[in-house]
Predict the 3D structure of the following.
Amino acid sequence: MPPVSGKLLGAAIAVALATGGPAQPGSATAPAAPAADGTVVLDGTRVPPSRLLSPEGAAYLRHLIVDKPFAGGPGLSDIVGERAHQDRIMRGFLEPMRRRYAVHVEEQRIGGVVTDVVTPADGIAPENRDRVLINIHGGGFVTGGRTASLVESVPLAALMRIKVISIDYRMSPEYRFPAASEDVAAVYRAVLKQYDPARIALYGCSAGGMLTAQAIAWFRKEGLPRPAAIGVFCASLGKIAEGDSAVLAGPLTGARPAGGAEGAPRRPPGYMTGAGDDDPLAYPQQSAALLAAFPPTLFITGTRAFEFSAALNSHNRLTAAGVESRFHGWDGMFHGFFYNSEMPEAREAYAIMARFFDSHMAR
Amino acid sequence: MPPVSGKLLGAAIAVALATGGPAQPGSATAPAAPAADGTVVLDGTRVPPSRLLSPEGAAYLRHLIVDKPFAGGPGLSDIVGERAHQDRIMRGFLEPMRRRYAVHVEEQRIGGVVTDVVTPADGIAPENRDRVLINIHGGGFVTGGRTASLVESVPLAALMRIKVISIDYRMSPEYRFPAASEDVAAVYRAVLKQYDPARIALYGCSAGGMLTAQAIAWFRKEGLPRPAAIGVFCASLGKIAEGDSAVLAGPLTGARPAGGAEGAPRRPPGYMTGAGDDDPLAYPQQSAALLAAFPPTLFITGTRAFEFSAALNSHNRLTAAGVESRFHGWDGMFHGFFYNSEMPEAREAYAIMARFFDSHMAR
């Protein structure tokens, strides 16, 4: 095998690793010397929208960063106004979603709790007659009842041709932990009268992802059987914002640093006030025995989401506990990105959710 | 269900999302206004070592950032010196590894190619008598023969109690693509005389991860059966550095921006010069049909590795093609982090690799 003739060629990875990469035209200025504790200061690092995004995804990220479309709510000091503001945002997501995915929505009181029951307009698939999904919506434990609810339920109901029950659980500031866990358990108890737990899956995004994980802990405490599978989306099994993404997600989405300049953890949502940091009913990752009892779990997030690092870590923790765990993230996408059904990234996420739940629920 | 009395509480996620997070004491200065195209400039963003790392992992990241232990090689203009430099680094990893994992190493020529055959000191496990792993080492297609080789093979040989054949393939600058693919295929052909392909798995890190993916394309072209599973570690199925991590990994490991200030893709390694950007034999992700023919694939990386975003994207592409794909990343870890066996994160990665290969190879 004769050598290929040729001059010495450009940068190789080993050398790039060793030297920190070749100097390139247009590079940013040299960074400040790192602190002795390994803290790096990102000065002059310019990050364009990820080239791995679809045109629609890149446009949505640009919209978030430049136009700040979700700003402007009155905040928690006017809870009625803030909920109305967030509901308007959710209805903005719902409008194209309802055109794309044909469903019926019906209000039903289940286990004493108000729910929205979402069913596909073209009927439940034969293999899903005895199966059901339970959705726990996002909105920071504060907003999203009956609106984020539908945003999270409509695509899966239509794509899987399955019934989705979305819970209008009690929220902050009127209620605190564990009121929502109690409501989820009340609905779950009622659903168990009709469905085999091996044919039930639970999922939610953001606060709803945290609540999904908390529900597994709560069910176990109550002696309820675990469901077939769960989807912890836009969240983790512990604190929602830790590690690198807690620091970087804010700046990378055009906002102030999300977690404070030194990466201090984001303050927990008000709903969680009073819950102990080491309480597995609040933060299931605190208990190794509880983790080992988790059902198969799917994590969905994006690299510019503040929960990204925590979700990645929960995926490893669950895997180490011997639990079937799957992780999917989209480069450049942010917290709750898949609420926008008009991006290929969102629809790819729905397809992964659908396949995961279908493969883990008994027929 | 009476309302919990209580005052309005702190930041909720919905509100944090809407406003970009609450202002916090000690926050960095407000960022510069984002560019109209959505490019953000990270000025004053301070990123400490991830709090999700083990003490050993955090110490290793700090060592990389502050002490720059892998700098100082002569570079490609002195290829002999550069290889010696990299080999010294690899022997530094090997020393504690050989103490931790007892193996025998034997040089064997297989299919005309020099290999290191690594076997567990306490014997091959009964269930692995008819199974074998093939390793394709990292080192930027330039360095690492017989050294990075062992760093990647010793832990799995010992942990799984299985034979690992590590290939000393032809490298740059003496050779170019597809010389290494030819060498891998030559070894694979010879191994197929003794082993069922359903009992063979291939894996590698960095250039070796790229080569593992390229091998699947090459085998298909040559009409060779595919192996049971592959591990694409520290790499992707396409270009190795794309998206957010290509821009951020350099600054986040205390080096200059890895991909140029505007996120321009890292220059490909010299070995790949001459390979077309759209050639699936070089970048398998270019062909949807090829992707769909991939065996079950495991990706292993870290959030501060330049390949992180590309690997995450390949995982989604493979999943969309209907292929069994698994992704594990460690927050705050960097390119090739698991070469350092003295961190829990590395040993957690070995355990995931071992379980993945074991579960996909026929008994």
Summary: The radius of gyration of chain B is 22 Å. Chain B touches chain A through 133 residues (CB under 8 Å).
